[in-house]
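Sequence and structure are no longer studied apart. To make this concrete, we show below a single chain and its fold as C-alpha cells.
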Amino acid sequence: MLRPKMILIDLDGTLVDSVPDLAYCVDRMMERLGLETRGEPAVRNWVGNGVERLIRRALTGELDGEPSDADYARAYPIFIELYAENTSGRSALYPGVREGLDYLLGAGYPLGCVTNKPAQFTLPLLATLGIRDAFGIVVSGDTLPEKKPSPAPLLHAAQHFGVAPADALMIGDSVSDVKAARAAGFRIVCTSYGYNHGRDIREANPDAVIDSFAELRGLVASDPSGEWRVASGEWRVTSDEWLGPRAEHSLFLGPRSCGWGLTAISTLGPPSHSPRATRYSPGTSHDPRRLRRTGRPRP
C-alpha cells in the first residue's frame, strides 16, 4: 500500500481524454495549410509531449519528424488559435477519475497537476471539467524553462508542498512521466489507457499500473499519516472509561510497533479540562476489537 505525502497527476491521457479536441484542431490546421488531414487515430499516437511536438508530428506525419522552420512557423499560430477556441468541447474525464480524485482528497492528500500542456489551455480545461479546485498547484508546460521528462516540474511542485521526493508519488500515462518521476526520485503509477505512442506503459517499468482511477482506493492508503482516523462520535469503547462526561471523542486506530492500538482524543469538555489522550492496548479491557458502532458519543 502506497502512503505518499503528496501526489502529482498528469493531465492528458491520465485525467482527461483530450484527443478529440486536439485531433479536430490538427485537421482544421492541416486544411488551412492545404495539406492532408491526419485523423484522430494518428493524433492519438502523437500526443503527450506538448503542443509544439504535436504540431511537428502532424506536419510530417511521423513521431520523430522535423518540418522546415518555415512550415512550423506557419502552422503554429493557426493551431494555437484553433485550440484556444476548442480546448474542452470534445474532451472528457476518463471513467473513474472523479471517484479517484474524491478518494484522494477525502484522505487528505495534497494534490498537484503537472502537465506539458501550456497554461493557457491547461487552466480552462481543468476549470471546464470541474476539477481545478482539486489541485493545490498546477505546473503547466510553460511554467518553467523545462518540462517533462525533465524532473524540474515535479521537484518544483514538491518544493511548493514542502515534501521530499522520496515521499512523493506521480501518476501519469507515458514514458515521459516515468522518466521524470525516476529522475526526481518519486514513485510512479501509470494508467494503462493513456497516450504512450502505442506502446504498453508496462515496458517502462512503473511501480504500478492501473486501469482506472477508481483502483487508487486499493493502491493508496486512506490516511497519509499511517493511522486510520474515524469521525468523531462514530465509534466508542464498550467500557465505561471515558475522558469526560461532556467530551467529544475522536478515535484513531492504526499500526503500532507492538501490534496495534487505539488512541482516544478528548477534543471538547468542561472549561477546566485540557485535551488529553489515552492509549488503549491489545489484550486489555479496552482492546479496540471490543469497539461497537454508535451514532453519537455517549451523553
User: Anything to note?
Assistant: The first strand starts at residue 6 and ends at 9. The chain is about 30% helix and 20% strand. The CA atoms of residues 265 and 277 lie 5 Å apart.
